[in-house]
C-alpha cells in the first residue's frame, strides 16, 4: 500500500454511491468502504444496481467490507490508522429513537478513537 495516499475509511455507505463518488474524485486516497448489512442484505435492499458500484470500487482497488458494526470495529480495521473517517448519516432507523441514536454516536466515537490518526478527522 502506498503510504503517500490519504487513508480514508467510509462507514455505513449503504449502496456504495458515496465511496464511488469519493474515489472518482480523488486518486490520492486509499479507501476502505464498509456497510452494516451483509452482502446478501445489500443486494436484497438495493437490487442489482448496487453491483455496478461494488464492481467499480473493486476495480479501483477499494477494500469493501460487509457486516461491519461501526461501534465495535473488527481487528482488521483497528490494525490501521486513518487520516479521514466518514459516516454520513449515523442512525438506528425509525423515528423517535433519540436515546438509541445517542448510544450509537457514543459507541461510534469510542470505537473511532482507536483508528483515527492524531492529525485525522471524523466527519
Keywords:
123 residues; 5-stranded parallel sheet; 5 helices; alpha/beta; single chain
What does this structure look like?
This protein has helices at 17-25, 39-46, 49-59, 75-78, 98-112, and strands at 6-10, 29-34, 63-65, 82-86, 116-122. Helix 1 runs parallel beside helix 3. The model has no long low-confidence stretch (mean pLDDT 88). It has a five-stranded parallel sheet, covered by helices on one side. The chain is globular. It is built from five helices and five strands, in the order E-H-E-H-H-E-H-E-H-E. Strand 1 (6-10), helix 1 and strand 2 (29-34) form a beta-alpha-beta unit. The protein has 123 residues and is an alpha/beta fold. 38% of the residues lie in helices and 21% in strands.
| First-to-last CA distance | 24 Å
Roughly how many Å is the radius of gyration? 14 Å
Biggest sheet features: 5 strands, parallel
Tally of helical segments? 5
Helical content, roughly?
25-40%
Topology (elements, then pairings):
Blueprint: E1 6-10, H1 17-25, E2 29-34, H2 39-46, H3 49-59, E3 63-65, H4 75-78, E4 82-86, H5 98-112, E5 116-122
Parallel strand pairs: 1-2, 1-4, 2-3, 4-5
Kindly summarize this structure in a few lines:
The chain has 5 helices and 5 strands; from the N terminus they run E-H-E-H-H-E-H-E-H-E. The protein has 123 residues and is α/β, with parallel strands linked by helices.
Amino acid at each position: 500500500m502506498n503510504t503517500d495516499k490519504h487513508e480514508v475509511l467510509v462507514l455505513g455507505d449503504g449502496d456504495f454511491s458515496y465511496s464511488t463518488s469519493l474515489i472518482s474524485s480523488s486518486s490520492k486516497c486509499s479507501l476502505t468502504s464498509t456497510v452494516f448489512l451483509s452482502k446478501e442484505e445489500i443486494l436484497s435492499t438495493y437490487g442489482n444496481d448496487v453491483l455496478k458500484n461494488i464492481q467499480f470500487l473493486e476495480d479501483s482497488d477499494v477494500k469493501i467490507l460487509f457486516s461491519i458494526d461501526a461501534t465495535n470495529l473488527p481487528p482488521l480495521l483497528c490494525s490501521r490508522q486513518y487520516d479521514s473517517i466518514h459516516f454520513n448519516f449515523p442512525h438506528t432507523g425509525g423515528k423517535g429513537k433519540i436515546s438509541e441514536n445517542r448510544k450509537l454516536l457514543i459507541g461510534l466515537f469510542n470505537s473511532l478513537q482507536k483508528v483515527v490518526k492524531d492529525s485525522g478527522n471524523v466527519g
